[in-house]
Fold each of these.
Amino acid sequence: MVNPGSSTAERLYSWQTVKIDFDDGIAWVTLNRPDKKNALSPTLNREMLQVLDALEVDDRCKVLVLTGAGESFSSGMDLKEYFKEVDKATPVEVMRVRRDSMAWQWRRLQTFPKPTIAMVNGWCFGGAFTPLCSCDLAICADEATFGLSEINWGIIPAGNVAKAFADKVSPADAMYYAMTGETFDGKRASAMRLVNESVPRAQLRERTAALARKLMEKNPHVLWAVKDATRRLRSMSWDEAEEYLYAKAQATYSTDPEQGRKKGMDQFLEEKSYRPGLKNYRRE
Ligand code: COA
């Protein structure tokens, strides 16, 4: 838990199952139930919604990194608190619990206005695939263990797990791992493009921080539009994408607080002080 100093902030940042550390623009958001391998319980799901809500408007967070405490990223949905106990709930209660879960694991994460990186430090099972795939980028430890374990105990990868996985990897890999429940390591996750990169665990945090720093050099307003558009246009036709991207571009330029498009062009065409193909324009 962070202790930012003001009483309002302390109240806002007081969570039982999630820890946040701010460090030089990075908000390290740690799923923090190490004794349960960071299983996603209804409390954690509700708290993660509040966390995303708070970080969206917190200037200390330029890039959000999602990771897990201890030796686990997350062991997936909490089999006791999310499944067994909720089995006894009323249909409306079930709906509310599922709604919290889906709200942060994909809806809010996928539309989060700042860059997000999943840093998969260890175990990553079942329900954990939804937030993993909903982060913009992902880096894992070579030593991490992934698995769509649902088939091993006779359920299907719901909670949008099967969808998240199938959207990322090839149809052959999606089918193979969903049907066999076999585990795979970080290097395999990278080879099948479930994550961007896999590195030895000893280098995981530094590599993730370096990527976050690279993202922080970009114009944040335009970066938000780029990540949003890149995700949305996957399901559009060429016609729709053309129309959408021109409209999105116009809306982005006209609302960009630092007017990056004009600055970039001035620095290239008038001042001849930089090459857009090689580095960022000069931001003040
Ligand atoms: N839901 C609820 N509790 C879980 C959990 C989950 N998904 N994953 C782990 N836990 C709990 C265990 O019940 C245990 O609790 P206890 O100490 O009260 O008995 C504790 O976390 C430690 O887990 P344990 O199994 O003893 O650790 P391990 O190092 O031997 O194995 C895993 C780690 C992740 C391989 C193993 O816990 C596991 O297979 N978890 C389930 C993974 C899964 O299939 N998730 C998909 C859910 S959709």
Note: The two ends are 33 Å apart (CA to CA).
Amino acid sequence: MTNSTRDIKSLDLHGIESALSDLGQPAFRVRQVVRWLYGRGVAGFDEMTDLPGALRVELAARYSLGRPTLSAKEVSADGTRKYLWELHDGTTVESVGIPAGDRLTVCFSTQAGCGMGCTFCATGQSGLTRNLTPGEIADQVLGVAADMAARVSNAVAMGQGEPFANYEPTLAALRFMNSPDGMGIGARHLTVSTCGLLPGIRRFSAEPEQFTLAVSLHSAVQATRDAMMPGLKGYPLGQLREALAMYGVRTGRRPTLEYALVANTNDSDAELAALVTFCRGLLCHVNLIPVNPVEGSGARRPDDSRVKAFEMALASTNVECSVRTERGADISAACGQLRQRHLA
Ligand code: SAH
Ligand code: SF4
């Protein structure tokens, strides 16, 4: 790959449309190209056998076609697989494939690293390296599907990075995953998890697709949340609640509120009371996640009795709630444990 050519996988659907129309191509070529790039995941333009030869040559002269290379893979006793992909510039990102019965969920990254600095998160400890392109995001899902030789039923933006700090490329990637010409994953089976960037939540509410939203709440007490998620100053809880209420009104869908329970931090009765107050009357589902201890963070898991207390209190106030079961613990494939170890 040379520096003078642009990677065709850095384009969104509209960019591919423009690229082909600039070359005087009819509209139906767009679907053909998307099928090759995101349905089949080809390695080069010469493999796009239903395009005229001259067009393949022209595309190859103008564009590169980047694909990540697999640089490491770990397989858990429970079948969960963790992948480390190397991108064209040596940057690395991680993804996880989680099989369950006939379902396969892929957890993908939207940035290399993350600039939000959440104290309990491994990715947050090393800062942001860079944003990923649509292709670099979507290719993780294609890569896991190929390695596991299975159709991906669900994909979640819960790997490294804050998706709404890289909004357009993330949405473009979700659209390639959703497209029948791409991976054909139903919109409701595509989930974005945000730490709570309000402009992103508002914008996401107005997207035409029925993508699923998850928001990392982690505390309904402002001071606690500020300490756990220092990158979120300027986005107070009251405004988050308003944005979530608006999301419910606009979409009719129920966002998930993620709550990583950390001993002596956000697991007290006062925290629980604040959480119940936050959720009461809000269309939402709370997902309690006993924190995965990350080296250097000091965050510890609470006793099971605290998890149970949260679960019972939410249920008794008619707030929908579940406790996340851990997968891939033996290979550190769980939330917040994804971290680049081979820095470029
Ligand atoms: N940046 C986005 C998405 C990636 S993180 C976000 O923060 O929502 C996916 C989820 O894992 C988030 O809810 C995040 O808060 C949570 N998480 C991060 N570190 C964790 C840890 N050590 N234990 C449990 N959950 C963690
Ligand atoms: Fe970034 Fe999410 Fe980790 Fe916070 S929890 S540092 S937003 S990846």
Note: The two ends are 18 Å apart (CA to CA).
